[in-house]
Amino acid sequence: MRSWLYFVPALLLPLAAFQAQATTIKERPEWAAIFDDAKTRGTIVVYDEQADRMDVFDAARAKQRYSPASTFKLFNAMVALDTGAVTDEFDVIPWDGKVRMMGGAPKVEWNRPNSLASGMRYSTVWFFQEVARRAGEPRMHDWLHRVGYGNETLEGGIDQFWLNDTLRISAEEQVAFLRRLADGKLPFSERAQEAVRRISITESQPEYVLHAKTGWLPEAAQNGSKGHKADGIGWYVGWVEAKGRRWFFAANMDLKPSSDGTQRVLITKRVLAAEGAIPPVQP
């Protein structure tokens, strides 16, 4: 295990990843066993705010950019609110009548009207495609640049760029983005950031509150992500609030179409439990 101080020049990182002068970085090779149990490869970054320490498994992959897939909904929701694409997180957009499937069966939650709140909860792709169209390419590109989100690339259509592997972001950059969201320090309005903080809560337990979003880019959509053309990419990103502390995390891993997507959550929760952020979980 190695530990060192990592100095971050502010001008080189538009996301202002680490607000302190120096953040301790610790490689965690022992976390390989957690990925091995799930029979997959991946990376995870966990930033312990109180300790000002970033723990990383597979530091090289943590710097590699991949499509954000549905984790982009966090960003897209704030654009929707600040451009007036929707009035608030409860503003409902009618269903277009097209039946969407998952696992060979209609996905009930997708085949009905949705709002930002329900769209975030059920990861309703068509809803976020519609609000992106309402925002439009010029405003969306401006927000990507102002935030410094990943490679800031908007290609292949206003309703496809986060799904077609043109927009890319690394696990390290995801954590930096989430820290700014949690602190209300993104260039979006505080109203938009607060709304997204609310609708990103997936668990509220006596011991902790979990803000999180999953994402998955199937292998068919991959356009040359280095070394991972045979697999899709699964994401799980967010932060935990517990015991007056916060832990920010971003994990991505290889997922085949037949893979159990819940592994993204289980792997991350096992790591968070090892960090002391949440109670122990069963493998």
Mind explaining what this structure looks like?
With 283 residues, the chain is an alpha+beta fold. The protein folds into 2 domains: 129 residues, Beta-lactamase (3-Layer(aba) Sandwich), CATH 3.40.710; 101 residues, 3-Layer(aba) Sandwich (Beta-lactamase). The protein has 9 helices and 10 strands. It has an 8-stranded mixed β-sheet with strand order 1-2-4-3-10-9-8-7, sandwiched between helices. A two-stranded antiparallel ribbon has the order 5-6. Strand 9 and strand 10 form a beta hairpin. Helix 3 crosses helix 5 and helix 3 crosses helix 8. The longest helix is centred in the last third of the chain and has 14 residues. The two termini are 23 Å apart. The relative contact order is 0.17. The N terminus is likely disordered.
Radius of gyration: 18 Å
Text of the CATH class of the largest domain: Alpha Beta
* Strand numbers in spatial order across the main sheet: 1-2-4-3-10-9-8-7
CATH architecture of the largest domain: 3-Layer(aba) Sandwich
Report mean pLDDT, rounded to a whole number: 90
Give the low-confidence spans: 1-21, 224-228
Portion of residues within helices:
25-40%
Total separate domains: 2
Major sheet:
8 strands, mixed
Q: What's the N-to-C terminus distance?
A: 23 Å
Please identify the oligomeric state: single chain
Provide key terms for this protein.
9 helices, 22% strand, 283 residues, Beta-lactamase, two-stranded antiparallel sheet, alpha+beta, 31% helix, eight-stranded mixed β-sheet
